[in-house]
Design brief:
single chain, 3 helices
């Protein structure tokens, strides 16, 4: 049996990696969305330590969600407002 005969199929050396790629893309998009939103809010609020922590620590969006909904005390409808509060 040829080593590459299972390449790209559901069975073989690369089959499980190919099916894992879809899940990896979903996690990547999820993490990138929440990281960008949290970094934007932390910079607008003048919180450089949160900005640095979230920029360097990758937690698949968990740290960003904790910051946005816990520490920044934002509600879901406030997440996408661009106007500055006075």
């Amino acid at each position: 049996m040829n080593f590459l005969s299972g390449f790209g199929s559901g069975w073989g050396p690369m089959g499980s990696f190919a099916s894992f790629g879809g899940l990896l893309m979903i996690v990547l998009v999820w993490s990138l969305f929440w990281k960008g939103l949290a970094l934007w809010h932390s910079s607008r609020r003048g919180e450089p330590w949160w900005f640095i922590a979230m920029l360097l620590i990758n937690t698949a969006g968990i740290l960003e969600l904790v910051y946005l909904f816990g520490f920044a005390s934002l509600k879901f409808d406030e997440l996408f407002k661009i106007t500055e509060k006075k």
